[in-house]
């Protein structure tokens, strides 16, 4: 009887530790999902184009934060379901949060080549649409056109395309914080 009591307490202690280990990430995901919902509400209640642009930027950052909280190690065999509109199986870890974020307007996807959830750029796109000369326009343009958040399939196809892209960026935003990166990329082209 005593062994059962010790074993029972040990089992209970292990269960508590496991619960604590799993509760922290879930509470973090919950906080990040709440931040995304709040950002969506700010978009829906924006009074003018600039306020809406700032709200979309906030939404983009909240979506990126939420995505970082989702499982990173996924399996295509478990996660891909071509019969679903979003292409993601109900068995994929984090899929409920992924779908809630998409319902709120995040343009997350699933990247087969990385076997991972993929970020979107809807917040950057909307920012550019609403405030093309805004204080964060260079970041928005960079993340939409130069460094889009997608898999291996993105980016300029030829060196000439890349030169044109970086050149266009530098012409639009000569004082951008991305300037040095764009210049390095141009120098690396043949």
What this model shows, in words?
- The protein is mainly α and 190 residues long.
- It has a domain at 2-123.
- It is built from eight helices and two strands.
- A two-stranded antiparallel sheet has the order 1-2.
- Helix 7 runs antiparallel to helix 8.
- The model is unreliable at 7-24 (pLDDT under 50).
- Report the average pLDDT across residues: 87
Structural class: mainly alpha
List the total number of helices. Answer: 8
Overall helicity: 55-70%
CA distance, first residue to last residue = 78 Å
Give the topology, please.
Layout: H1 2-44, H2 49-69, H3 76-79, H4 95-104, E1 109-111, E2 116-118, H5 122-130, H6 137-146, H7 159-172, H8 179-188
Antiparallel strand pairs: 1-2
Helix pairs in contact: 1-2, 1-4, 2-5, 5-6, 6-7, 7-8
Which descriptors would you attach to this protein?
190 residues; mainly alpha; 8 helices; 2 strands
Task: Provide a short characterization of the protein structure.
Helices cover 64% and strands 3% of the residues. With 190 residues, the chain is mainly α.
């Amino acid at each position: 009887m005593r062994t059962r009591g010790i074993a029972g307490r040990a089992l209970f202690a292990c269960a508590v530790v496991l619960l604590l280990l799993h509760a922290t990430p879930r509470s973090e995901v919950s906080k990040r999902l709440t931040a995304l919902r709040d950002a969506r509400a700010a978009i829906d209640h924006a009074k003018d184009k600039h306020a809406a642009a700032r709200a979309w930027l906030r939404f983009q950052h909240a979506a990126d934060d939420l995505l970082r909280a989702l499982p990173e190690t996924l399996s295509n065999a478990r996660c891909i379901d071509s019969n679903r509109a979003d292409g993601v199986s109900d068995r994929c870890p984090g899929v409920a949060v992924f779908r809630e974020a998409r319902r709120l307007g995040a343009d997350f996807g699933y990247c087969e080549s990385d076997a991972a959830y993929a970020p979107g750029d809807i917040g950057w796109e909307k920012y550019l649409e609403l405030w093309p000369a805004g204080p964060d326009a260079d970041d928005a343009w960079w993340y939409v056109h130069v460094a889009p958040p997608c898999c291996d399939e993105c980016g300029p196809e030829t060196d000439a395309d890349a030169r044109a892209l970086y050149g266009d960026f530098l012409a639009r935003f000569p004082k951008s914080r991305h300037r040095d990166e764009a210049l390095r990329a141009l120098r690396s082209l043949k």
